[in-house]
């Protein structure tokens, strides 16, 4: 009987090279895979071909490190006595939840030894606390739900109980008096803390599943928090933040996307003046399938933006939701909403009647900032994956990073990730200094331009990552699974919250307002 974690010479390991007794070495650790061979997804033969040998190189060509983490405790029996550190090709499989990446450009520079005027110890403690929670409680099952096109009420409750919805609503009185993860006081919570919350959710790497974890709340609850009457706000906001109720934003229609002024969904007052009767269709609504509340743009007046209002519609008679199949996961709950003679109390009006467009525009800044946060950290995650794989993958006897063309692809990815992130940090700092109205006036243009830039960057990041990973990048499981999900989802950021073309145009039109009339070359 073998005593676990014994020490073996390579000669001893070499004797175990048959189906009756098969041992292999991976990174100087000895594994008994005799029984496992029959269960190996790729068949027994490829495992037995390396029985008695050091299989490190071929293992890391075919597997992610989480596979070794999964089986190490069960299959490892000892270490190599004459361990050769040069043969340790893989990562530290004992990596702890919440660890900060050491891969170059795998994190914001402030987390990799660089100085920053923006980030402090409070932000760093907050990120580690959130990352630890996600690594332990959310990430292990995220890919399964994403691939199965299913939302997870259990995980939604977990993140609700942890407080994620509070963090993602941003700084405010709803956090005052609370001690947040990492020991952060609610009164000290700023937009950089909120940015971390969005980034750590994005880091899960399953875009559809991530959107199902509260994107509807992030973009649908702020109008209620800002513009609802006190009684409505006091009832709805706590229910959504604690996860007992869900909410989504319903602006887009089959008839109007970025052209918000063209919406056709109507809300007509009853003769008694106590209700609106809502009729219309909303489409591509994230999280709508399981929502209890819908923040809905409706037409209460004439044509154009002057006739638009914003209503909080509660799930009731006349509200029908149907899931829409999209190019990324059904776990996002992307929905078609049919509103037929829905009776909504006038108290559910958000802001003023026919003043809804201002509320929508005020909400767009935060929505676009949030989308940028998700896209940017997705770009960084894929860059980290690509850098790691290029360092790990051996081709023609050398790592992929030995190829100049691969280094150029990595360079292009890093340049775009760092440029976009540094721009984002500057805008986030402005948000911390400006009041809400000043943000609305001054940041609409820069946010529109940055949203366009970050989504354009994602195309190149995705394209380069696909070329670096090869066939693995178009395979839903295995080494390139994060790249595969990313490249299926990149157009969502480019379209939702305002298409790229609208963003570029808006950014320059806002800049033109400040153009000196007498400016000449």
SSE topology sketch:
Elements: E1 6-8, H1 10-14, E2 17-18, E3 21-26, E4 29-32, H2 44-48, H3 56-62, H4 65-75, E5 76-80, H5 121-147, H6 153-162, H7 164-168, E6 179-180, E7 184-185, H8 191-202, H9 207-211, H10 215-220, H11 222-227, H12 230-241, E8 247-250, E9 266-269, E10 275-285, E11 293-299, E12 308-314, E13 319-323, E14 335-345, E15 349-350, H13 356-392, E16 394-395, E17 398-399, H14 404-433, H15 436-442, H16 444-469, H17 481-495, H18 500-512
Parallel strand pairs: 1-5, 8-11
Antiparallel strand pairs: 2-3, 3-4, 4-5, 6-7, 9-10, 10-14, 11-12, 12-15, 13-14, 16-17
Keywords:
single chain; elongated; alpha+beta; 17 strands; 4-stranded mixed beta sheet; 5-stranded mixed beta sheet; 15% strand; 521 residues
The biggest beta sheet is recorded as: 5 strands, mixed
Mean pLDDT: 93
Number of strands: 17
- Rounded radius of gyration (Å): 26 Å
With strands numbered from the N-terminus, the spatial order across the biggest sheet is 1-5-4-3-2
Class by helix and strand content?
Answer: alpha+beta
How big a fraction of the residues is strand? 15-25%
Distance between the termini: 86 Å
The helix tally amounts to 18
Parts with pLDDT < 50 across at least 5 consecutive residues: none
Into which percent range does the helicity of residues fall?
40-55%
């Amino acid at each position: 009987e073998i005593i676990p974690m014994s020490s073996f010479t390579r000669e001893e390991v070499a004797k175990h090279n048959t189906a009756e007794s098969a041992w292999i070495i991976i990174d100087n650790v000895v594994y008994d895979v005799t029984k496992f061979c029959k269960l190996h997804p790729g068949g027994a033969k490829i495992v037995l071909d390396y029985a008695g040998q050091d299989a490190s190189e071929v293992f890391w060509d075919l597997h992610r490190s989480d596979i070794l983490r999964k089986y190490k405790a069960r299959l490892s029996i000892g270490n190599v006595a004459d361990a050769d550190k040069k043969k340790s090709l893989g990562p530290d499989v004992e990596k702890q939840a919440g660890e900060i990446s050491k891969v170059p450009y795998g994190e914001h520079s402030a987390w990799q030894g660089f100085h920053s005027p923006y980030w402090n110890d409070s932000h760093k403690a907050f990120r580690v606390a959130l990352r630890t929670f996600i690594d332990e409680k959310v990430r292990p099952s995220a890919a399964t739900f994403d691939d199965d096109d299913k939302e997870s009420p259990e995980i939604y409750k977990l993140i609700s109980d942890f407080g994620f919805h509070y963090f993602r609503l941003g700084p405010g009185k709803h956090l005052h008096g609370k001690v947040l993860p990492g020991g952060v006081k609610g009164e000290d919570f700023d937009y950089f803390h909120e940015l971390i919350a969005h980034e750590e959710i994005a880091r899960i790497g399953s875009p559809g599943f991530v959107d199902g974890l509260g994107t509807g709340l992030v973009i649908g609850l702020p109008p209620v928090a800002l513009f609802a009457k006190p009684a409505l706000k006091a009832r709805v906001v706590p229910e959504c933040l604690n996860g007992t109720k869900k909410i989504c934003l319903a602006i887009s229609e089959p008839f109007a996307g970025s052209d918000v002024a063209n919406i056709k969904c109507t809300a007509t007052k009853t003769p008694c003046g106590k209700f609106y009767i809502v009729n219309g269709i909303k489409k591509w609504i994230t999280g709508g399938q399981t929502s209890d509340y819908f923040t809905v743009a409706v037409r209460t007046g004439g044509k154009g933006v002057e006739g638009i209002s914003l209503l909080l519609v509660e799930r009731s008679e006349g509200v029908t939701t149907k899931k829409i199949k999209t190019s990324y996961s059904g776990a996002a709950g992307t929905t078609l909403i049919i509103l037929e003679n829905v009776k909504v109390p006038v108290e559910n009006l958000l802001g003023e009647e026919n003043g809804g467009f201002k509320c929508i525009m005020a909400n767009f800044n935060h929505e676009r900032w949030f989308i940028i946060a998700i896209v940017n950290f997705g770009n960084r995650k894929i860059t980290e994956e690509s850098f790691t794989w290029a360092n790990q993958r051996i081709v023609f006897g050398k790592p992929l990073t030995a190829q100049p063309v691969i280094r150029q692809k990595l360079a292009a990815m890093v340049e775009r990730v760092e440029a976009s992130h540094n721009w984002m940090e500057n805008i986030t700092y402005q948000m911390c200094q400006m009041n809400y109205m000043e943000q609305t006036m001054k940041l609409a243009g820069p946010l529109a331009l940055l949203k366009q830039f970050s989504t354009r960057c994602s195309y190149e990041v995705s394209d380069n990552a696909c070329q670096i990973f090869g066939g693995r990048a178009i395979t839903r499981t295995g080494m390139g699974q994060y790249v595969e999900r990313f490249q299926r989802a990149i157009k969502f950021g480019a379209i939702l919250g305002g298409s790229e073309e609208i963003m570029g145009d808006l950014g320059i039109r806002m800049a033109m307002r400040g153009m000196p009339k007498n400016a000449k070359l």
